[in-house]
């Protein structure tokens, strides 16, 4: 017995059309009106459908239709907004941004870094760490107000891989410890989208969301 091959494209189109019909507001409203007409044709003559009930049902279908149309509009706007974000993010490629991180940047034998203090501190100290966690340098910052601060460290005496240097900050206000957040500057090498949000790929290999960027240099 000869069997005709199944046309997969027609199956796909049929499935797609059924899915569209299930979500199309106009199709949903058409189905409601057909059900309403059938209900009117088959109602009990001794107990007809109340006008208030009919009005309530029509108002409900209009509300559902309006919500579906609003959802479709918002989804379209979200997609356009995501595309615009990526386009704007492309203009940041090649620029440096400040994000959380404790990497020491060494240029011309000078190590640099930044940090943010949660409040004023009378004694602030930055310790430069080797890849094994050994302290290889210290920078006494003295008294600092709350906010963002930068430091420099003479890296000329360090013989190891300077790209692996990290730092940590200790801040005291009398006997009370002051919270600090280490910051680092990295260059943006690519921009993309993650769940509709702008994401940036840095030269460190890390990917951060735009909301994580503290400053653009």
TrEMBL record:
Transmembrane segments: none annotated. Belongs to the FlgD family. Keywords: Bacterial flagellum biogenesis, Cell projection, Cilium, Flagellum. The keyword Cell inner membrane does not apply. Residues 1-23 are annotated as: Disordered. Residues 8-23 have a biased composition (Low complexity). It comes from the Bacteria. This is Basal-body rod modification protein FlgD. Pfam families: FlgD, FlgD_ig, FLgD_tudor. The lineage of its organism: Bacteria, Pseudomonadati, Pseudomonadota, Betaproteobacteria, Burkholderiales. Coiled coil: none annotated. Residues 84-214 form the FlgD Tudor-like domain. Residues 101-174 form the FlgD/Vpr Ig-like domain. Required for flagellar hook formation. May act as a scaffolding protein.
């Amino acid at each position: 017995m000869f069997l005709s091959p199944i046309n997969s494209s027609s199956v796909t189109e049929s499935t797609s059309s059924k899915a569209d019909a299930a979500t199309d507001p106009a199709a949903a409203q058409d189905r409601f009106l057909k059900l309403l007409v059938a209900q009117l044709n088959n109602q009990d003559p001794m107990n007809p459908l109340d006008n208030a009930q009919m009005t309530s049902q029509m108002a409900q279908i209009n509300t559902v239709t309006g919500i579906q149309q609003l959802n479709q509009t918002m989804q379209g706007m979200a997609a356009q907004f995501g595309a615009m974000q990526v386009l704007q993010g492309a203009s940041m490629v090649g620029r440096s941004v400040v994000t959380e991180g404790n990497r020491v940047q060494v240029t011309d034998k000078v190590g640099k870094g930044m940090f943010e203090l949660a409040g004023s501190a009378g004694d602030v100290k930055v310790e430069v760490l080797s890849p094994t966690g050994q302290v290889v340098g210290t920078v006494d910052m003295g008294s600092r107000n709350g906010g963002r601060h930068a430091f420099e460290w003479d890296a000329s005496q360090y013989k190891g891989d300077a790209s692996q240097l990290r730092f940590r900050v200790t801040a005291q206000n009398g006997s009370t410890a002051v919270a600090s957040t280490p910051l680092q500057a990295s260059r943006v090498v690519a921009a993309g989208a993650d769940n509709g949000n702008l994401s940036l790929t840095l030269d460190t290999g890390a990917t951060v969301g735009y909301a994580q960027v503290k400053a653009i240099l």
